[in-house]
Inverse folding.
């Protein structure tokens, strides 16, 4: 059974999602059945992810040859500590989102729950695969699910945002294929580990072509990750999506960041000869600009959801800085920050939705509007999320940002990283306190909050589940830091992967 | 043969990119289709172009790389599904937004934006 463990995270959502399309789960009135099924599926996935983490920590990385076609020819699923951690993160976020959607989002259409499962399938697959073309396929799986989830439910605003999102991502997919063709044409393999071996021995005229292919891949991953200047789609798309979908999308940008970490550490990493660290000079300025523009966008946001969207861009910039430092310590810091930022920005989208539903027509815009009915509950939730995003102790943002700051050791790097991250944190505090004061304290005096409905317990439980992770990361900080360090070491240690896959005889 | 092939892929990519930059969904959809054709041809050529090569062992003297052919098949299927989706989405956008522009509204008329300022000066 343990030999087949790496493919379980793919099989559960795929079969579960298909099952929900069949009787007795299909049909508009059978939503209760689907709720039970999807909650069970999410719990199984979380359990499976924890099992995977445990196995990988104890026995080392797992390799799974699909159909028993051995590397470098077959498609390989490769679960190391990094993949296992991200799968656990995704399933946890999925659990929170599923709980939240029980409040009514899932009744807007009968395919909502299956689509969430297919979305999760694509994300897990992208984290697990060790084959570049298979990565493309899983990207398409998660994209087609995200296209439909984005347009799910009422609202013409969604259609306009979705048209942009779909067209951009289709162009991105074309670029991905061109990059894959270029890399396959030069190295003759699609296995990421095998490619890392072959890229070292390329003749010079071939190496330039491989460099072009590798740079194109950065554009593709940058588009997914919303790296500047490819971030314009993000705030509008996330603001248009329904709250649980936007929260789930918080992990989608991280898929792009994960691919940047994986591909440019393993294939174009330190051992790649002429092409070693080839994207690093590009990523530095783009990461810095992402933080700057994201912060300015956060200050200028007219509503809470756009603010959260811009904070996603800031978090991507911080992660890219952790990538650009190119040390295992910086990677470990980035991984910890990735876990924190995914959960907290996800929670922030949910909070924005709950606040909006109690403010009448103004929704989550920063204007004087009706008084929020459940001020204390929502206020505490918003306060915790805001402190955590801004990076104040005792929450996880503090730990994550501190580790990124400590990872910058070269003085020239230190100046940029420290000043930028600290300044952007200050600006984030200002933006969030402005948002909080307007939303909670400035309301029309004659408004009657009793007309609005209470937030449901499903919504509360989903949001609290995600928010509790923030202090939990700090309380179990020692274990988390230890784990991310090990995961980063594994990612940077390419030679051990080559041994696991038996690839050393490759010419 | 290589030159002809390269020119075909290049022209199709050019047309695809040009059409994708247009403002109306119809031309963008056609552009995306052309782009995916160009990509499929490009992917096919990554296994090198050679004539009379069999993809199955023991069937011929010279062999062609079978992997790009498999990749192209996958890419065609996925690309076709995505184009189908974007066509439906464009029709829905035409119904929801009342026009077939990608932005969902007319681009701002630059003449009108600039002229009042000029008259003040």
């Amino acid at each position: 059974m343990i030999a087949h463990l790496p493919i379980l995270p793919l099989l559960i959502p795929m079969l579960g999602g298909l099952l929900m399309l069949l009787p007795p789960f299909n049909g508009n009135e059978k939503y209760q059945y689907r709720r039970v099924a999807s909650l069970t599926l999410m719990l199984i996935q979380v359990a499976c992810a924890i099992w995977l983490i445990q196995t990988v920590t104890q026995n080392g990385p797992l390799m799974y040859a699909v159909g028993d076609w051995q590397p470098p020819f077959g498609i390989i699923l490769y679960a190391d500590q990094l993949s296992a951690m991200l799968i656990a993160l995704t399933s946890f976020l999925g659990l929170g989102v599923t709980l939240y959607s029980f409040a009514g989002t899932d009744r807007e259409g009968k395919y909502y729950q299956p689509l969430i499962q297919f979305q999760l399938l694509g994300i897990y697959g992208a984290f697990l695969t060790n084959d570049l073309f298979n990565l493309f396929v899983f990207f398409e799986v998660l994209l087609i699910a995200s296209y439909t989830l984005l347009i799910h439910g009422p609202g013409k605003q969604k259609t306009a945002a979705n048209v942009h999102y779909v067209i951009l991502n289709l162009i991105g997919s074309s670029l991905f294929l061109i990059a894959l063709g270029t890399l396959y044409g030069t190295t003759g393999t699609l296995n990421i580990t095998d490619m890392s071996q072959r890229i070292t021995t390329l003749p010079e005229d071939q190496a330039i072509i491989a460099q072009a292919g590798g740079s194109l891949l950065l554009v593709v991953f940058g588009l997914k990750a919303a790296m500047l200047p490819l971030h314009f789609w993000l705030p509008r798309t996330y603001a248009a999506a329904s709250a649980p979908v936007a929260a789930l999308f918080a992990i989608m940008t991280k898929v792009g960041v994960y691919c940047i970490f994986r591909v440019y550490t393993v294939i174009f990493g330190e051992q790649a000869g002429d092409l070693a660290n080839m994207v690093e000079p590009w990523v530095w300025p783009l990461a810095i600009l992402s933080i700057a523009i994201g912060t300015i966008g956060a200050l200028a946001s007219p509503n809470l959801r756009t603010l959260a969207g811009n904070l996603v861009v800031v978090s991507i910039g911080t992660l890219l800085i952790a990538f650009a430092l190119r040390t295992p310590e910086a990677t470990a810091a980035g991984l910890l920050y990735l876990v924190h930022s995914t959960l907290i920005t996800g929670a922030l989208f949910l909070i924005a939705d709950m606040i909006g539903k109690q403010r009448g027509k103004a929704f989550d815009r920063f204007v004087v509007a009706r008084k929020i009915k459940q001020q204390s509950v929502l206020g505490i939730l918003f306060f915790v999320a805001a402190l955590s995003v801004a990076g104040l102790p005792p929450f996880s943002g503090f730990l994550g940002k501190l580790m990124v700051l400590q990872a910058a050791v070269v003085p020239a790097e230190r100046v940029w990283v420290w000043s930028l991250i600290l300044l952007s944190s200050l600006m984030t505090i200002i933006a969030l306190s402005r948002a909080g004061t307007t939303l909670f304290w400035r309301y029309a005096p004659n408004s009657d909050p009793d007309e609005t409905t209470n937030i449901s317990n499903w919504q509360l439980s989903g949001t609290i589940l995600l928010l509790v992770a923030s202090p939990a990361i700090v309380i179990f900080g020692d274990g988390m830091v230890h784990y991310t360090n090990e995961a980063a070491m594994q990612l940077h240690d390419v030679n051990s992967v080559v041994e696991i896959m038996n690839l050393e005889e490759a010419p | 043969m290589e030159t002809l092939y390269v020119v075909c892929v290049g022209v199709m990519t050019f047309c695809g990119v040009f059409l994708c930059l247009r403002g109306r969904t119809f031309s963008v959809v056609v552009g995306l289709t052309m782009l995916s054709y160009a990509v499929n041809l490009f992917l096919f050529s990554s296994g090198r172009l050679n004539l009379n090569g069999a993809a199955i062992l023991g069937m011929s003297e010279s062999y062609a790389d079978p992997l790009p052919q498999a990749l192209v098949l996958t890419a065609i299927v996925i690309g076709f599904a995505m184009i189908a989706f974007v066509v439906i989405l464009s029709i829905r956008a035409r119904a929801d937004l009342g026009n077939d522009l990608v932005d969902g509204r007319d681009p701002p008329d630059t003449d009108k934006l600039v002229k009042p300022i000029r008259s003040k000066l």
Summary: The mean pLDDT of chain A is 91. The longest helix of chain A spans residues 156-187. Chain A touches chain B through 26 residues (CB under 8 Å).
